[in-house]
Every structure is written in C-alpha cells, then in structure tokens.
Amino acid sequence: MINLTKVLKNWGFQEVIIENQFHEDSSRQIFSFSVNNQRMLLKGIPDEISENVIKGNVSAHEYLGNQKHIAPDIIYTPDGNCYIHEDGFWFYVMEFVEGRPLEETVEDEYSLGKIARLVHSYTDYQYLSSLDADKKRFYEWFTDKEFKKEFDSILNQLPDFTKYDQCFIHTDLGPHNAMMRLNGQVILIDLDDSGIGSMHLDIGWAFIMQFVEYNRETEEMKYRFDLAMAFLQGYYENEKISRNEYDLIWQGAIFMHISYMKVFGPYAVNPLWNILKYGMCQKDKLWDMLIQQETFI
C-alpha cells in the first residue's frame, strides 16, 4: 500500500485530502487530491518503466503546459524537481483541469482540429515521440491469415513517414484525450507518448480508429463523415488541402490502425481487418465531400 501522504510531502503539501482514484485496474497510480482547496493530480508509474520515459512524460507537460499553456501544468517540488522516485514508483504532480472532456460532436471535433494544428506548429521540442514510425515490423504479422497477401500489399504502399513533416505530436489525438476548461479553452491530456514525430500519423489516427463506428453485435459499420469534416475544418480552416496532403493523412490513418491490430488479442484481428478495409473505402467519398466546399479544397 502506497502512503500517499508521505509521497506528497515531497512537494511540501500538508493536510492533503485524497479525493478519487482513476483507472484502478491499471498498474499506474492516479489520484486527484486537494490542498487548501486547490485540486491537483498525482500520477505514479511503476519503476519498471525507465527514468528516461518519465523525463519525457514530464518534459511534455512542462513544454505544452507550463510553457505553451495547452496542457496541464507540472507542479514542482520545493527544490525544483518535477518528479520523484519512491516506493517502487515514479511520481509527478500535475494541475487538475476543471472542465469537461471533449465529446464526439461536430463542435468538439472542430475544436480538436484547431488545437491539433497549434500543437503541430511546434518543432523545437527536444524529445522524440515513442511512436515507432517504421512499418517493417508489420511484415512479420498475420502469417497465418488469409488476408496476409493483401495486408502486405497495403504495407508496400505506405511511405517512410520520417521523410515528411516532423513536429510535436500527441500520438492518440481524440476527444478522449482533450478537455475543455470552464473558460472554453481546449487543452490536451495524457501526453505519455508524445514528442517529435510524424504530423501525418498524428492527424491520421482518428480517420479509421475513431471515425469508423463498429457494432460488435451486428458487425455493422458506419463512417462519421460529419466528425471527419469537422476535424479537418478545424485543422485547416481556410487553408487549401492538396490531394497529396490528403493522401498522406490517409496513409497515416492506415498505419495507425494497423499498429493497433494486435493490441486487443487474437479474436479482434479479423474485425479490425474488416474495419481497416471499410475505412479505406471511405477515403474517396470524404474527398468528394470536401471538394464541394470550395473554400476548403
């Protein structure tokens, strides 16, 4: 049992009130607490994770939060440290964001697109994202599947994303990782894997992973063109999107979806393959819808 009061004394906090624990089924320890009516968030990560990873995590919050003010701030200890090691965990304290999570609505997707564009304008960050942009590992996957030949053919068409625009990326850019403050400002949360990486992978994540709605019971699928359009409108606003840029976003979408195809276990592989194929079929339909907006293409 972790003595949270003892841990938080490293920040000089006295008379701490522990409020809630989040993700209790996780090995990570995440608690909200308050001191003198100020709410904060304590995050503890098992020390099997290397210290370099923790440095990257807190650095991302320092950069996007304390410096750019579009993520929760890191709270420092009295001697200026941004994290500590105690009881087998790395701990750091962040600002608790008062507000609401973004939702899968047109309005919120538009706001998410705008904040994504702002984040992607930052190129001077010192840490690389932990996202592996190399497709080579995927060629070893699914050797027992009937779709293996088609799968490899799809991989062959994916570019080397490291040769295209590199910037600060989140790696899991969806409404579930964004909050709207009480004043209406949108910020990003959960920066654990963020850093410098491929812009097109970051934008592309949602175009299959999120925008394809899949009914597990009926296996029916639906594409949320409204959300995809809203995100792109927020991201590009009145800027023109070239067909080449659009193609790169979709190649990023395919890469990101494939990267998750083994995450949910062997029984999820075939449904995820079907989702991939269905999602790819929506690319030209969405493009045709974008063309109809003359100020957008």
CATH superfamily name of the largest domain? Aminoglycoside phosphotransferase (APH), C-terminal lobe
Which spans of ≥5 residues are poorly predicted at pLDDT below 50? none
User: Total helix count?
Assistant: 9
How much β-strand is present in the residues?
Answer: 15-25%
Average pLDDT figure: 95
CATH class of the largest domain: Alpha Beta
- Give the name of the CATH architecture of the largest domain: Alpha-Beta Complex
Q: How many structural domains are formed by the residues?
A: 2
Return the structural class: alpha+beta
Number of strands: 13
Cα shape: globular
Task: Output the helix-strand order.
Answer: HEEEHEEEEHHEEEEHEEHHHH
What does the main sheet amount to?
6 strands, antiparallel
Cα Rg? 21 Å
Q: Which topology of the largest domain does CATH recognise?
A: Aminoglycoside 3'-phosphotransferase, Chain: A, domain 2
Helix fraction bin: 25-40%
Question: What's the N-to-C terminus distance?
Answer: 57 Å
Pfam families: APH
Protein name: Aminoglycoside phosphotransferase family protein
